[in-house]
């Protein structure tokens, strides 16, 4: 028994902005879906099933919005699945869709993730009311800042590393027409002078709140053969979860992240990720998560990740470019952020990333995480099919 | 790719009007222990875990993350979640097993309707621009559907009352059911639907274990093999649908192979009596088919779990040798907008 290979043949996203007041939720998702279909030169009739993902329904105030979105996404008469795995959901959604193709249940699947955060206030949406959480936290930054401080203490990283990540990602975003933040006058000094929000995380080291959607068309070998543009091939994909809080949890480098990466590398035959993988789109909502995930994903030894960042290895022209698109630090429609990572990885191996294209990007990792650093989803895509 | 996959264990809570003394995790834990105990499996033996629930019932974001504590996800597990009824979590797990990446799966879902006014909460499911601002509640929308059926000559009020009475009479044999035995048919809630035509509002949870091939035979004396499962969605706007029919159910049943041979049992997720009429028609069920021997959603309707319970009840009848070929159905959305059909079979006796 062998799995059907999965190819990405269409990618579409909206221009991510703070508030898309010109479109409804249906209009927003349809825009991304339409662009993915156009990229694949397919029509709605070519799609067998739709798999949609987003983060908490409270962000838009619509319960299970996929019911209302069935028409806009051409899903009437078709199977439609709705995934929700917290911040990792964009990645998980793509993996659920990929499984439908891999299991030969469907030939061609449209997968899409979105968030229209201007409909509410995401920070307070993420701050659970008493009695579900202690009244200490305001938004995700309050939750993650202590873990960043733990990393700094553990690794001895100089406190400037976070600002280097933010400065890099915001400059990369200038080369990505879909990125939300286009700060043409960005300087390292400005990042370092921005207000402290959750010590040690400064304002310029946090993600924005965006309206946006991202869609992909996934298909089987036969579909890939008909594709008008080079496909990206899925070489490995996995999800891992662990509880939010428990004695012995390593919040800095969670075991679930390590296990998830190891599973992907095993499937893809990656022996040394630092050598075998050409670039990474990883989920970095707060700058310091770049060095933290470099270690968690096996690109650097424990305590050494910040040295790659400091040495410029993760720059667009570095040896291991990270977040070529500008990353979550430049664009964050939460439910879509994971899928944007997966889609950007696919764009790179298809050679269609435009100004932020990495030369000779043959194997690129897409990574997403969510909850209290507990849900992980990743895929590795390549320019050549898995059996090649 | 033809991989045989079966439901090998099923468990559910006693469904009750309120479970305010229990958290979701506390409600779920006994059910998880029950299915694991039936198979002798431990969490670490499970290849994939998938759940279904809704933040809108819990009233807080990421409500499913704490439920994960009940699973004991350590060492880390391969896991996913759908913001849908657990029947769709089972569908995702089924596709995962089909790929060969896992041989066993734990599927669970839960819903606590008691913390909020459910009829109001479900209005938040509707088109947020044109319909939700009017707050048309779930009973009112089902009443539109019931009236359309009566107008079309497909049913009448006494026939609906008979569906209610049969369901609650059957539920006397189901210790988990919330409404059992003689229940007064009551006054109109929204004409033509009376209290008895509506499901009870309640809290509950359910869990199922799936296994592939020989693994299933080792874990269960008579596995309920999933011969087919498919789901389809219809347009959202009620104004563009024929509410007396369910083309999505019929299509899902066709794709699941339900019409290839007759079934002996059908567990239908019909929260309202009138919806059983629609589903019987769409599924072409004749009087020889035993419909909702568990009492169905009219006896217990924990939102987000009631669909998975239909699959579990159908599978349990196959396990017990009370059915050889059963159909299970789950629904979501207003007036049966989205429907899933599974066909389960036991090995020949």
From TrEMBL, chain A:
<dbReference type="InterPro" id="IPR016039">
    <property type="entry name" value="Thiolase-like"/>
</dbReference>
<dbReference type="GO" id="GO:0016747">
    <property type="term" value="F:acyltransferase activity, transferring groups other than amino-acyl groups"/>
</dbReference>
<feature type="domain" description="Thiolase C-terminal">
    <location>
        <begin position="246"/>
        <end position="372"/>
    </location>
</feature>
<dbReference type="InterPro" id="IPR055140">
    <property type="entry name" value="Thiolase_C_2"/>
</dbReference>
<dbReference type="InterPro" id="IPR002155">
    <property type="entry name" value="Thiolase"/>
</dbReference>
<protein>
    <submittedName>
        <fullName>Thiolase domain-containing protein</fullName>
    </submittedName>
</protein>
<dbReference type="Pfam" id="PF22691">
    <property type="entry name" value="Thiolase_C_1"/>
</dbReference>
Automatic annotation (TrEMBL), chain B:
<dbReference type="InterPro" id="IPR016039">
    <property type="entry name" value="Thiolase-like"/>
</dbReference>
<protein>
    <submittedName>
        <fullName>Lipid-transfer protein</fullName>
    </submittedName>
</protein>
<dbReference type="GO" id="GO:0016747">
    <property type="term" value="F:acyltransferase activity, transferring groups other than amino-acyl groups"/>
</dbReference>
């Amino acid at each position: 028994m062998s799995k059907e290979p999965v190819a990405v043949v269409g990618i579409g996203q909206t221009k991510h902005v703070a508030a898309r007041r010109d479109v409804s939720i249906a209009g927003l998702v349809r825009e991304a879906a339409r662009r993915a279909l156009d990229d694949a030169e397919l029509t709605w009739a070519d799609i067998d099933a739709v798999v949609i993902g987003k983060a908490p329904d409270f962000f838009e105030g619509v319960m299970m919005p996929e019911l209302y979105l069935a028409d806009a996404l051409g899903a009437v008469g078709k199977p439609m699945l709705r995934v929700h795995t917290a911040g990792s959901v964009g990645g998980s959604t793509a993996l659920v869709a990929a499984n439908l193709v891999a299991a030969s249940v469907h030939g061609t699947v449209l997968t899409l993730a979105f968030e229209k955060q201007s409909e509410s206030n995401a920070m307070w949406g993420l701050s659970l009311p008493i009695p579900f959480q202690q009244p200490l936290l305001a938004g995700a930054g309050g939750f993650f800042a202590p873990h960043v401080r733990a990393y700094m203490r553990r690794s001895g990283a100089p406190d400037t590393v976070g600002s280097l990540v933010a400065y890099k990602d915001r400059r990369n975003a200038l080369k990505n027409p879909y990125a939300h933040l286009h700060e043409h006058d960005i300087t390292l000094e400005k990042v370092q002078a921005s207000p402290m929000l959750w010590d040690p995380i400064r304002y310029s080291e946090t993600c924005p709140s965006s309206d946006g959607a991202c869609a992909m068309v996934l298909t089987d070998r036969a579909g890939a053969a008909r594709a008008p543009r080079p496909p990206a091939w899925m070489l490995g994909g996995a999800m891992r979860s662990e509880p939010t809080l428990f004695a012995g949890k390593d919040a800095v480098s969670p075991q679930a992240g390590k296990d998830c990466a190891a599973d992907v590398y095993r499937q893809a035959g990656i022996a040394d990720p630092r050598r075998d993988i050409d670039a990474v789109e990883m989920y970095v909502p707060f700058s310091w998560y770049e060095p933290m995930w470099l270690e968690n994903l096996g690109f650097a030894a424990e305590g050494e990740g910040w040295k790659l960042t400091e040495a410029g290895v993760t720059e667009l022209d570095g040896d291991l470019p990270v977040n070529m698109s500008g990353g979550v630090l430049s664009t964050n429609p939460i439910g879509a952020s994971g899928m944007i990572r997966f889609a950007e990885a696919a764009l790179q191996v298809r050679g269609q990333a435009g100004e932020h294209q990495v030369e000779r990007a043959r194997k690129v990792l897409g990574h997403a995480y969510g909850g209290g650093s507990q849900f992980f989803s990743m895929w590795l895509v390549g320019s050549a099919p898995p059996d090649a | 790719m033809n991989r045989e996959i079966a439901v090998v264990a099923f468990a559910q809570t006693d469904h009750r009007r309120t479970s305010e003394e229990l958290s979701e995790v506390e409600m779920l834990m006994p059910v998880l222990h029950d299915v694991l105990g039936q198979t002798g499996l431990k969490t670490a033996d499970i290849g994939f875990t998938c759940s279904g629930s809704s933040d809108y019932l819990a009233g807080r974001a990421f409500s499913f993350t704490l439920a994960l504590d009940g699973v004991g996800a350590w060492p880390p597990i391969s896991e996913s979640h759908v913001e849908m009824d657990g029947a769709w979590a089972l569908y995702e797990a089924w596709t995962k097993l089909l790929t060969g990446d896992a041989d066993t799966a734990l599927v669970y879902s839960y819903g606590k309707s008691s913390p909020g006014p459910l009829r109001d909460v479900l209005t938040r499911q509707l088109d947020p621009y044109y319909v939700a601002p009017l707050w048309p509640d779930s009973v009112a929308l089902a009443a539109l559907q019931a009236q359309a059926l009566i107008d079309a000559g497909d049913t009448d009020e006494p026939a609906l009352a008979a569906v209610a009475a049969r369901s609650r009479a059957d539920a006397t044999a189901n210790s988990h059911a919330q409404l059992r035995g003689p229940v007064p048919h009551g006054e109109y809630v929204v004409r033509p639907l009376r209290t008895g035509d509506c499901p009870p509002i309640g809290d509950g949870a359910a869990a199922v274990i799936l296994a592939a091939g020989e693994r299933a035979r080792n874990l269960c004396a008579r596995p309920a093999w999933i011969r087919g499962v498919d789901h389809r969605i219809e347009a959202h706007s009620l104004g563009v649908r024929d509410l007396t029919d369910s083309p999505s159910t019929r299509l899902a049943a066709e794709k699941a192979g339900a019409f290839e041979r007759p079934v002996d049992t059908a567990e239908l997720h019909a929260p309202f009596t009138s919806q059983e009429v629609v589903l019987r028609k769409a599924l072409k069920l004749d009087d020889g088919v035993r419909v909702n021997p568990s009492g169905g959603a009219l006896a217990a309707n924990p939102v987000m779990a009631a669909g998975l319970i239909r699959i579990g009840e159908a599978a349990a009848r196959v396990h017990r040798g009370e059915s050889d070929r059963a159909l299970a159905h789950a629904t979501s959305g207003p007036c049966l907008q989205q429907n899933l059909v599974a066909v389960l079979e036991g090995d020949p006796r």
